[in-house]
Amino acid sequence: MGRLGTQDAAEELQLLAQHDPEISGELRIARAAVVERLRGEGGGALPPTAGPVPAATAAAAIRIHAPEPTTPAPPKSTRTRLEALLRKLVSLGGSDLHLKAGLAPYLRREGRLIPLKEPPPDREELLDCMRGACSPEQMERFMRLGDLDLALGLAGVARFRLNFMMARGQPSLVARVIPTEVPGMAALGLPQSLHDLALSPKGLLLVTGPTGSGKSTTLAAMLDLINSVRRGHIITIEDPIEFIHRDKLSSVTQREVGVDVASFADGVRFALRQDPDVLLVGELRDLLTVRAAFQAAGAGRLVLGTLHTNSAAKTIERLVNIFPPEEQPQARMSLSLTLSGVVSQTLAAKAGGGRVAIHEILVATGAVRKAIREKQTQAIYGLMESGAAAGMTTLEQGLARLVRSQAVTKEEALALANEPALLGMF
Beta-carbon neighbour count of residue 354 at 10 Å? Predict the structure, then answer.
């Protein structure tokens, strides 16, 4: 394409982008690719991140949005290949699949990344996967944020949480396996105290832990228990919807951020007008969502949520510190009145292969509420340590039990402990 033709294309695409979110998004992808290429060549000024579309970017966008007739995009075969890789992920017992343009696929099994002997996907294959899986609204959101979560189901295989992202101007995909059936609490080996917390009539119940620690699975099992024994209305706000919960004794309404509602905070606020008994909030990630969750719990609902914290005490501090300093005393008071419990979960490698979940459990007894209210967070560990009668335990106590039973090596326990020096005491 000559310079004049390229410039004309730039102007035409600029006009189209004002009316077509997909084209606008493709321009952003192309712009990122041009920027990365110029960086790699070490040459010249980089294209601007806003303003008119450079001619080179327009040409790249044309190649993405409308491939030449001689090389049509193969969305059907691309999706078939993605599905084949997802089936292989499940058959090999993996938890995650990693796809990057130009690189061999990887799967994660028992916490370790393993390369697959499969041809690497190219840029167009991954973009076709994205177009085939996303609605126009989701595509626009991805182009704006550079990141998107969504769910995909394969009948008879599993559901998958897909994360599309851009990295160095190239698309990437990570897929995580979600079982088609919600696992029961007994099948997961969850302790009785979690069973008791799940059946709390009201309050704030938090399941926390690092990414990949099984929070979603534990939360789904607790919600399934509620659904099985309690008559009421359960509303979930998720990003994306992972486990599918069908009505049992309860009526279950599942809403997805970006599809059914704009944000977690909006979902919680709107839910209060939808006659809920139980709310599940996929992630308490910002002030508006936390404030809405406090309000719902204070109004007599049971609110379940997750945070990316690795201990009960850090969870308390994270929730309080998300508020502005002038609101933190009131936040402590609200939390002390509404908290039901905190379950911090991590996964340990078993000595004989596989992984096992360890839980730190905080139950909101009178002493715990007083410690929260009076800003004595450092006292919470001791209350858990001595609170076995109330169903409490520390992470270190759980690790020590596994070491004594030879289920986990001492080295693994030391690597996972928040307080390694305390392991020898148990």
Answer: 13
**Nearest partner of 279 among 233, 240, 314, 228, judged by Cα:** 233
Return the CATH class of domain 75-178.
Answer: alpha beta
pTM: 0.77
> Beta strand pairing status for 96-100 and 170-178?
antiparallel
286 Ramachandran zone, left/alpha/beta (phi>0; psi -120 to 50): beta
pLDDT one-digit tens code per residue, 113-171: 999 999 999 999 998 888 888 888 888 888 888 899 999 999 889 999 999 999 988 99
The domain segmentation of the chain, as residue ranges, is 3-65, 75-178, 185-425
Q: How far apart are CA 64 and CA 240, in angstroms?
A: 27
Place of tokens 């977690």: 264
Q: Specify burial of residue 409 (Cβ count, 10 A radius: 0-12, 13-18, 19+).
A: middle
Q: How many CB atoms lie within 10 A of CB 104?
A: 14
CA distance 284 to 40: 39
> Beta strand 106-109 with 96-100: parallel, antiparallel or unpaired?
antiparallel
CATH dotted code for 185-425: 3.40.50.300
How far apart CA 331 and CA 316 sit, in angstroms, is 10
All residues at 6 or more sequence positions from 160 whose CB lies less than 8 Å from its CB, including other chains: 86, 151, 152, 153, 154, 175, 176, 177, 178
pLDDT tens track for 315-333: 999 999 999 999 999 999 9
CA distance 352 to 349: 8
The ranges of the chain with pLDDT < 50 are 1-24, 26-27, 30, 33-74
